[in-house]
Structure formats: C-alpha cells, structure tokens
UniProtKB/TrEMBL annotation:
PROSITE patterns: SULFATASE_1 (PS00523). Residues 53-467 form the Sulfatase N-terminal domain. InterPro entries: Alkaline_phosphatase_core_sf (IPR017850), Sulfatase (IPR050738), Sulfatase_CS (IPR024607), Sulfatase_N (IPR000917). This is Arylsulfatase. Gene3D superfamilies: Alkaline Phosphatase, subunit A. PANTHER family: ARYLSULFATASE FAMILY MEMBER, BLL2667 PROTEIN. The keyword Calcium applies. Keywords: Calcium, Hydrolase, Metal-binding, Signal. Belongs to the sulfatase family. It comes from the Bacteria.
Length: 621
C-alpha cells in the first residue's frame, strides 16, 4: 500500500511539475499503467545565467540634481561619491516628476500611465480610467517577477507606494503588495510618506510595530539580513535588492549628530548655494562648461532681502535636510560595506537613482512644521511665527511634518528651473543616475550624457544579467517593455542614445521630448495655488487647459531651459504638440486630470475598484 502511494505521488509530481521558468513544457517522459512500464522525466530547475551578477537598485526620494556632492551639491554623500568615482555618472537621466509614477515606470520598464499609475494609488488621486487606476496590470510584469522567474531571490525594503489604499490593510488582497509583484521579502511602508520614527510599517503581508529606531536604520538591517540568510542557505545564488528609503521625502527627521554637522553651512543662503553648486558641477563635468543659472523661480525671494530671523529659520530647515541626506548615504554605505566584506560587491550591479523626482516644493514658502490640519489655514506671517517658535524641533521626531521652504527646493535643483510635480520642467524630471559594476564597467569615474529615462533601467538590468524579457509571467502573456537599454553605453561613452521620444505628465504639467527638442506647458492650478487660495471660494477655470502656454526649448544647446524658442520656431512647436497627443493616446494618458479635479471631487463618481480590469492589450513602444 505504501509503495503504491509513493509511486502515485511521484506520478503526480511528474505530470504537474512541468513548468520551467514561466513557460509550460509538455511532459517528455512516458506514463504507463505501472511504474515498470513508465519513463521518468523531470524538468530542469530554473537557474540564472552563469556568473549572473547580483543587482541592487537604490532609489532616493525627493532629491534634486544639485543636492548630493556626487553631482556637485554641498551635501556630503561619500558613499555615492565612491560608487560614482568607481562607476559611471549619467547626467541626462529623467524621472516622472513625482513618486508613484516614477516607481511604477521603474519597476515595469513601461510608462506610468501605460501601467495605470498616472497619478497615485491613493483613492483621492486615482480615477476610473485605464491610465489612472493606480493598479499595475498583471500583463505589465515587474523586474522582481522577471528575475525571480529566472532563479534570483528578490527583496525590497523601504517605500513601495504602489498599493491601493483600500487594499493596504492586513485583510489584503495582497496581489498588489510587494509580495504579489515578485518580491519574496518586503520590509517598509506601502504609502507615499511616513514618519521616520513611527512609520506605518509592514513586513511581508502584515503591519507590524516599529522598534523606535529611525526607519533608514531598520530597513538597512533588514536588507543586510535578507542577503546574509540567503547566501548562507545558497552561497553564490544571485539576488535582487530594491532599496528605496523614504528619505529624503518629508518629514525631514534625523538624529542631531547628522543635522548639526551642517551648523552654519547654509547661512549664506540659497542664492549663494546655487552659485557654488554650479561651479562644482562644471568642475565635475556633470553640466556643460558654459552652463549658466536660470533666474530664481517665481515666489522665491532674494536671500539678501530676507530679515535675519527668516534667514536663521530657513537655514535650520536646510541643515536638517542636509543631515538627513548624509545619514541616508551613511546607511547605504553600511549596505555597500557588507557586500564588500562578504566578497559580493565585485559581481554586483549597483544602480543609484538620486531622487524619484526633483526637489520638493511641498514645503511651501515658509517651510512646514505644522500638523496637517494647520497647513493652509495660517497666513504667511502666522506660519512663519509658528515655525520660528518651534525652530528647535526641526528635524527631530516631534517635527512630524518638517519640510524646507521653496528657496531650498530650487537651490537643490541647481542648475534647473522649477521642482517636483513640474513635468514640464527639467527641475521636476532631471535626476542623477550612477551605475556601478566592477566586473562589467572598464572606465572608472566616467561621464555619460546620453538621454535616458527611468523606464530604461529595467531593460539595462536585463542586459547586464543576461536575461531576455519573458513572453509570459505565470503563464500570462506579457506586454512589450517600452524602455531602452543603456548597456552599450557602459563601455562606450560615444554610443548613440536609443531613447529618442519621451512624454511627461503630472496633474496638468506636461511636456514632450524628441531628439533634443522639448515642448512644455506649465499648468495651474497646482498644489501651491490651492494652498494659497484655500477657503477663498477658488473654483478654477473650466477653460484652463486651452489657456496653458506651451514653450519650446532646444536642449542640445540649452540644457536647462533658459531660452524659450516658441515664437521663433512655431512650426516645430506645433509638430511636438501633435507628437505629445500621439504619445498620450498610445500610453493611456487621457483624460487630462489636474489638482482641481482632485480637490473638487470630479473623479470617483462611480468608484468600483473590484470590477476594474487590470489587463490591457499590447500596443508596443
């Protein structure tokens, strides 16, 4: 009896375990009535390519191009400096101008609206249209799913930001949690931001209590622990780690030992900061040698015209931010040091994206310390006085909404105009990229100027690993990857960029890039306008879309958008506007949705998340 049971179980295994990777393979043995008349067959186990590298993606939050010392900023980031000096700096890399769209595009290698994340996965900022659902379709698989199906272990720590609010409870469903998108281990938070000492913390499929330490410290311990346990169990097996701290998104919270390192460092103000950073950037070669600064953004006053108490307050806000970024670099350094000490670093691809968008304008004009129910309800003077009275709380655990003023946002975006959310401007979309791979990159400290976008990181990684994008994941046919690999640029600084066209859109602000030319339209109202006018009966303008003014720039000659050529080349502008419309149609961008639609509740009239279809037809690039 026992023999028959064992033989029957073996036969069941033979007839069911016939999946290699993600493709069903027909049983290739022979099944007879008895074991004696049968021929066993086992599918080959899934294994990664020979000597496949480990992969670490590092994605920071709300960091402008001119913040980190790696790209000329005045905030010290020695770990990133070392990775860049021993790898490559990509100076023409772009994100989606806000967090969730960037993350969705990064993880899938496809444009954000195309995968349903044109806004956020939050109920308040998603909508019942294919490009706005806040739900990544199953036919748009993630890098974690691809690598997992090719023999990698997959881990994620930090900010995820792509789980719909109504599914982010311990009751699930969990298919849109990290574990449902290919990550075998996850430790972090599901939303867009969280308190760094009292985070809304999740481990795998359950919320847990924090231990009271800074979140960066906790996620770094977890990342190291995941790798350590995996390598003990399967030495040499490759892993993929997605390390995405909430840093340095607000609230800016960090131990005084880091923020106090910058005491007095920013007393000269944001105008002088920009001048110093531009000089550093020219010296490093991360901007053209003839680069000049654009004028200050609207609403940013000259530092020299500020009274002494405002200078004191604003400088302290920046000290906290700087300390927070340096501390984040320190935590990444712990991870890199572990990889080096365990002889894993040489065969590890490390991709560092310093920011998922430009520096944040969400600190408003005075900076913020207020609880959320006060923001927008105080006059500018009241807000300033409140912040000044709490200056000693800036950066500490009790500073639960700490965010710096607008002037520092532009300063840390040097040399660009505008900031986060402004998909029309380089200040919203232009971020530093570092690629480090000792065994695969010959040149150390090289500069790469090819145009690239966040959707390019996935295909680049697949090329580095030696894996092709799968035709199916879990037997579900997969849509086309839209990004372009940067692989050929790793050891050829002169390689031609393959990424020629790219559209951008965040809540009305929009632009289109094509072969060095860019057409862009700012759009108002935006979040700042809403805060300024809250409670005044502001209703917006029903004809606001038609009133947006398009601008035209030749980025080949004017990389930071100082000279608007719209009047000089009207035909070029019209051609690019037409191209934007074509890309918008192809990528599910329409209908246009902006902040007014969110605040005036013009979406969610028939909200039925359970019946929303999450698979869309393939349309290619």
């Amino acid at each position: 009896m026992k023999i028959r049971i064992i033989a029957g179980f073996a036969l069941l295994l033979m007839t069911t375990l016939h999946v290699t990777g993600q493709q069903k393979i027909p049983f290739q043995g022979k099944v007879g009535k008895t074991l004696a008349g049968s021929e066993e067959w086992w599918p080959k186990p899934v294994t990664p390519p020979a000597h496949a590298p480990n992969v670490v993606w590092i994605l920071l939050d709300d960091v402008g191009y001119g913040a980190s010392s790696s790209f000329g900023g005045l905030i010290q980031t020695p770990t990133f400096d070392s990775l860049a000096n021993n790898g490559l700096r990509y100076t023409n890399f772009h994100t989606a101008a806000i967090c969730a769209p960037t993350r969705a595009a990064l993880l899938t290698g496809r444009n954000s609206h195309y995968v349903g994340v044109g806004g956020f996965s939050h109920v308040a900022m998603s909508a019942g249209f294919p490009g706005w659902s806040g739900r990544i379709p199953d036919d748009k698989g993630t890098i974690a799913q691809i690598l997992q199906s090719n023999g990698y272990n997959t881990f994620a720590v930090g900010k995820y930001g792509l789980t719909p609010d109504e599914e982010a409870t311990d009751a699930g469903p969990f298919d849109r949690w990290p574990g449902g998108k290919g990550f075998e281990q996850f430790f972090g938070f599901l939303g867009s931001q969280t308190d760094q000492y009292e985070p809304d913390l999740v481990e795998n499929n359950a919320h847990i209590k924090t231990d009271g330490r800074h979140l960066n410290d906790q996620i770094t311990d977890k990342a190291i622990g995941y790798i350590q346990k995996q390598q003990q169990a399967a030495p040499g097996k490759p892993f993929f780690l997605y390390y995405a701290p909430g840093a340095v998104h607000a609230p800016h919270q960090v131990a005084p030992e880091f923020s106090n390192r910058y005491k007095g460092a920013f007393d000269e103000g944001w105008d002088r900061y920009r001048e110093k950073v531009l000089a550093n950037q020219i010296r490093l070669g991360v901007v053209p040698k003839n680069a000049q600064l654009p004028g200050r953004n609207a609403d940013v006053p000259a530092w020299d015209q500020l009274p002494a108490d405002k200078k004191k307050l604003y400088a302290r806000f920046m000290e906290a931010y700087a300390g927070y970024l340096t501390y984040t670099d320190y935590c990444v350094g712990r991870l890199i040091h572990y990889l080096k000490e365990t002889n894993l670093l040489e065969n590890t691809v490390v991709v560092v994206m310093i920011g998922d968008n430009g520096a944040s304008k969400e600190g408003t004009f005075q900076g913020t310390l207020q609880t959320r129910n006060l923001i927008g309800k105080q006059t500018e003077e009241e807000q300033f006085r409140y912040n000044l009275s709490r200056i000693d709380d800036i950066g500490l655990p009790q500073g639960k909404n700490t965010n710096y003023p607008l002037g520092w946002a532009q300063a840390t975006n040097t040399p660009f105009r505008q900031w986060k959310q402004d998909a029309n401007a380089e200040g919203g979309t232009h971020n530093p990229l570092i690629i480090f791979y000792p065994e695969g990159i010959r040149e150390k400290g090289g500069i790469r100027t090819q145009y690239s976008h966040v959707i390019d990181i996935l295909p680049t990684t697949l090329d580095l690993v030696g894996i092709k994008a799968p035709a199916a994941i879990r037997n579900l046919p997969q849509d086309t990857i839209q990004g372009y690999s940067l692989f050929k640029t790793l050891n050829d600084a002169g390689a031609t960029a393959d990424h020629k066209i790219q559209h951008y859109y965040i809540f009305g602000a929009r632009s289109i890039y094509a072969d060095g030319w860019k057409a862009a339209a700012a759009h108002h109202p935006d979040a700042i306008d809403y805060v300024k006018t809250r409670g005044t009966g502001w209703k917006g303008d029903p004809d606001r879309w038609e009133k947006d003014t398009w601008e035209l720039y030749n980025l080949n000659e004017d990389f930071n958008e100082r000279v608007n050529l719209a009047k000089k080349y009207p035909e070029k502008l019209e051609a690019l506007k037409k191209l934007f419309d074509q890309q918008a149609e192809k990528n599910q961008l329409y209908p246009l949705i902006d902040w007014e639609d969110v605040y005036e509740k013009r979406i969610h009239k028939n909200y039925q998340p359970a019946v929303y279809k999450t698979t869309t037809p393939a349309t290619g690039k």
